[in-house]
Write a structure and sequence with these properties.
The complex is a heterodimer of chains A (about 300) and B (about 625). Chain A contains ten helices and 13 strands. With about 300 residues, chain A is an alpha/beta fold. In chain A, strands 2-1-3-4-8-7-10-9 form an eight-stranded mixed sheet, with helices on both faces. Chain A has a two-stranded antiparallel ribbon with strand order 5-6. In chain A, strands 11-12 form a two-stranded antiparallel sheet. In chain B, α1 packs parallel to α7 and α8 packs antiparallel against α9. Chain B is globular. The chains are: A alpha/beta (about 300), B alpha/beta (about 625).
Chain lengths: ~300, ~625
């Protein structure tokens, strides 16, 4: 069943890569949700995670480094009826694409952002990513990193994401459910996925994560304020997994647009006819009435 | 009989000058005149000197403006100091008599280089440098007729008449100027009234008070001077006109052409286009155009691409600094054959350069930016009429050839206000190119131009990496050749199919050939008309694909070839040389950020004929 969503492309991630856990959880989630292939678009950035759309049998847009979110924003705004999922890396979304990451939260557009978080830039041979804690020296680094790490969930929460969760690539049951929840959320959803990089990160390994992970228990993500959610999501000696925050009150971007353009969701930009027999739909009369403010009639 | 009039109206930015221009230009046009005005302003919200430089014609629609003006209307003393030398002999001046004792030293907004030039000039003509001394000089030496109005006392009258505060009354200076100009030109007060009512819709009292003031001043002026500047041509033929700037007409073109998504990041002089589109976003049938203000230009172009992938006609509008940021997205659209339109308004560069001043320096940027090589179409508009056509054509070509289209404009066009005849809407065609019907879709199959399906209708893949026909990453060398050739071949096809990439104006085999593009069009044509010498003008409408054959044949037939451009050294000469091997030896350039004026172009072309190889134009403050 889950195999229905795979493609024939050979998957060229390193053996043991956390990305395998992520893509297989995606297959399972899509399968259980019976995702419509041609109505779903996975948008990725650059890096190992960026290759993922080629391994999933739904439409895939493999974009530029850091720009998956704005590409996805254009797709979703032009056709809000599509299911749009962003799949990016930690460097992609929080380094080169950090501005877009914040902007999506402000808009609360109905997109799920899945972030592969292995704390290194794998495809360029292991440099520190924005989530690598300070003073950490992974094996590819010359010296320990002297830049502080971003806390992705805190950033997502303060940016305005209305569904903020953390999962782990090697716990497929947990991750599959987290992906399904994120897809089903109406609004901007952020799912931080911890994962090992078996080639370049010799510190944050599967064992490292397994020893520290604690799943949320008795936690109501809708009965907490931002500060409470930030505190709860913090990584200390333990790494909490689960859905920390969910807000269903804040209007989505689609609803905000429909507030100004009432027919937006019925006649989406992608669905509008713009021509008839090769002619524009705006005739001379329509043109004159539309641009009346610029029209000048000569007085006799 | 006066048929045409050149004028400058100036004042501090944010002091009501915009209102004056809007109301007067509407009145000129509805009285049957053609109107064209350059708008010059600083990168500043309030306080710095700003002006409109207009030509009004009662016989045709003007295509260029002159550096010498028949009328100078001053809202403040800085306007007088900045422009007094440009009034023609026997011309007219409107100024505030209460500023008579002012000197340039007391005006902090004047920049030092102008201050120094003024000091030299005052010494040269032997005046002390007060407003009164300048006015006296103009009267005596230049036979300028002066309309002296005491603005504060006029405002005091209106303050009493309507029992309003002095700060309120001070906002009415614009109406003093409207009154004085309409008096001198004998404009129909009903036309002014309509303009004022339109401007102050829903604010009846303000409209009434402004109108009262206009009438009062206009009567004062007419009583003393008559209406010596009344235009007496037969009026232009059109019963209906559009009064538009370049941002607006381009926005109209995009909407008419079926654009339904525009993204942008605020930048001068492009942002007004997006604002205009947003104002006209909804249609009566429920259709709408989405205008998205993004977090930066990286997001502007990439969200535009995303929207285009869904089959929505999508564009973004920017200027040089924003375009520089968009280049990574441009390359992605190139390798993925995405039909997007980038409307590119050039301004002075490099870097922040001259954000509010015009330039044509970015032709190379539009043609060659981005690493790697891909087919792109670059259209260039020379006036408002061309901008409308190109705004629509850009989408048709983008979709037909599945490639990004750059529509190159500039600040001059963006801000020049012009009356134009109504576009021929019934002739507007929409061509969406080859669309997919069938099964087993592969996005990049059957090139060079593959069938296009939209996200949402089929499963498909896109990637910025080199890819196979399905859109999956491939580094295979033979696949690379196949796909690279597929994309490049589209330019050859576009070259064959696109007519009118260059237009020629003038006699067969002229002695002298001017080569240009963009906003030099009007001024070149007007200069040619005025000159006795034999001139032709080769006007580019499209630089990519490049019109090799036609350009080569014109160049070979001409004795003297002159490039005219708003740039440091003509980019058009470089591009012509790259494409044809022909070296254009002579050039007339202007890179002050101000437009080329008709009179200075005529003078410079005469110099070129007499042997000069490079003329650098400098007129205009």
């Amino acid at each position: 069943m889950a195999r229905d969503y795979g493609t024939e492309n050979w998957i060229d991630w390193c053996p043991g890569c956390g990305d395998f856990g992520i893509v297989s959880s995606v297959y399972r989630a899509f399968s259980e949700l019976e995702i419509q292939k041609e109505r779903t678009v996975v948008v990725s950035g650059i890096g190992c995670s960026g290759k993922m759309p080629h391994f999933i049998d739904v439409s895939g847009v493999h974009t530029l480094h850091g720009r998956a979110i704005p590409f996805a924003t254009g797709i979703k705004m032009a056709n809000p009826k599509l299911e749009v999922i962003v799949n990016g890396g930690d460097g992609d979304l929080l380094g080169i694409g950090a501005g877009h990451f914040v902007a999506l939260g402000r808009r609360n557009l109905d997109i799920l952002v899945m972030m592969h978080d292995n704390r290194v830039y794998g495809l360029t041979k292991g440099q520190a990513s924005p989530t690598l804690p300070r003073d950490t020296k992974t094996k590819a680094l010359n010296t320990p990193s002297i830049q502080d790490a971003i806390e992705p969930l805190a950033l997502a929460l303060t940016s305005g994401y209305t569904h903020v969760a953390r999962s782990f690539a090697m716990d497929s049951d947990h991750l599959k459910e987290a992906i399904k929840d994120g897809i089903e959320h109406e609004g901007a959803a952020f799912l931080n996925i911890l994962q090992p990089c078996v080639t370049y990160n010799d510190i944050h390994t599967s064992e490292y994560f397994n020893e520290r992970i604690e799943k949320l228990d008795d936690w109501d993500p809708q009965d907490v304020d931002l500060t409470g959610a930030i505190n709860k999501s913090k990584i200390t000696d333990e790494i909490p997994l689960g859905l920390f925050y969910k807000d269903t009150e804040t209007p989505t971007f689609e609803e905000r647009i429909a507030g100004q353009l009432p027919d937006y969701l019925n006649k989406t930009p992608a669905e509008q006819d713009i021509e008839e027999n090769g002619k524009t739909l705006l005739d001379k009369k329509g043109f004159k009435s539309k641009f009346e403010g610029n029209l000048i009639k000569k007085e006799k | 009989m006066t048929e045409k009039l050149n004028m400058i109206l100036g004042g501090a930015q944010g002091s009501g000058l915009e209102t004056t221009i809007q109301i007067l230009s509407t009145a000129f046009a509805s009285s049957g005149n053609g109107f064209l005005a350059d708008r010059e302003y600083y990168s500043n919200i309030k306080g710095r000197h700003s002006y409109a430089h207009a030509k009004i014609s009662s016989i045709d629609i003007p295509r260029s403006i002159d550096s010498k003006i028949d009328l100078l209307g001053c809202m403040d003393a800085e306007t007088l100091f900045t422009h007094f030398d440009d009034i023609v002999e026997g011309g007219y001046l409107i100024y505030d008599a209460s500023t008579g004792e002012k000197t340039q030293d007391s005006i902090k907004s004047i920049e030092n280089p102008l201050r120094e030039r003024l000091e030299e000039r005052f010494e040269e003509i032997g005046i002390e440098g007060t407003v009164s001394s300048v006015v006296e000089h103009l009267k005596e030496e230049n036979d300028v007729k002066v309309i002296e109005l005491d603005y504060p006392s006029i405002l005091e009258d209106i303050q009493k008449e309507f029992d309003i505060s002095s700060s309120h009354a001070s906002r009415y200076v614009s109406s003093i100027l409207i009154g004085a100009v309409s008096g001198l030109m004998g404009l129909d007060k009903e036309e002014i009234k309509k303009g004022i009512e339109r401007k102050f819709e829903g604010k009846e009292k303000i409209a009434e008070q402004n109108m009262f003031l206009v009438k009062k001043v206009s009567e004062m002026v007419e009583k003393e001077h008559g209406s010596p500047l009344k235009l007496e041509g037969s009026g232009i033929d059109e019963d209906e006109l559009l009064m538009v700037n370049g941002n607006e007409i381009t926005g109209m073109g995009k909407i008419t052409g079926g654009m339904r998504f525009q993204s942008y990041y605020p930048i001068t002089p492009a942002a007004d286009e997006s604002f205009f589109i947003e104002q006209h976003a909804s249609f009566e049938n429920g259709d709408s155009v989405i205008v998205l203000q993004t977090e930066d230009e990286l997001a502007a172009i990439t969200s535009c691409i995303g929207a285009a992938l869904t089959g929505t006609r999508s564009a973004t509008a920017t200027s040089g600094p924003g375009f520089d940021l968009m280049v990574e997205g441009l390359g992605w659209a190139g390798i993925n054959e995405v039909p997007i339109v980038i409307t590119y308004y050039q301004r002075g560069g490099p870097s922040t350069g001259q954000p509010t001043r015009g330039s044509q320096d970015d032709l190379m940027n539009a043609l060659y930016s981005s690493h790697g090589n891909f087919a792109r179409i670059v259209l260039v508009s020379g006036d408002h009429e061309e901008a409308f056509i190109d705004a629509i054509k850009a989408f048709n070509l983008a979709e037909k050839f599945q490639t990004p289209v750059i529509h190159l404009m500039d600040k001059f066009l963006a801000n020049f206000v012009k009356t134009i005849p109504l576009p021929e809407i019934n002739k507007v065609e929409i061509d969406r190119g080859k669309l997919f019907e069938g099964e087993d879709y592969k996005r990049f199959e059957d090139g060079p131009i593959s069938d296009r399906a939209f996200l949402g209708s089929e499963v498909m893949w896109y990637t910025g990496s080199e890819h196979d026909v399905e859109g999956n990453v491939s580094e295979d060398p033979m696949n690379r050749i196949k796909m690279h050739e597929k994309r490049m071949d589209k330019l050859e096809i576009a070259h064959e199919e696109l007519d009118d990439k260059v237009i020629y104006f003038g006699p067969e085999d002229p002695e002298n050939l001017i080569v240009g593009w963009g906003s030099v069009k009007g001024v070149v044509l007007d200069a040619m008309e005025e000159m006795d010498e034999d001139f032709g003008y080769l006007h580019f409408r499209c630089f990519s694909p490049f019109p090799f054959e036609k350009v080569s044949s014109h160049l070979e037939e001409s004795k003297t070839v002159i490039a005219v451009e708003h740039s440091y050294s003509p980019r058009v000469s470089e591009v012509v040389s790259l494409n044809t091997g022909y070296q254009i030896e002579k050039e007339v350039v202007k890179f002050t950020g101000r437009p080329i004026y008709r009179d200075e172009l005529i003078d410079s072309l005469k110099n070129v004929i007499e042997g000069s190889s490079r003329e650098v134009l400098k007129h205009g403050p």
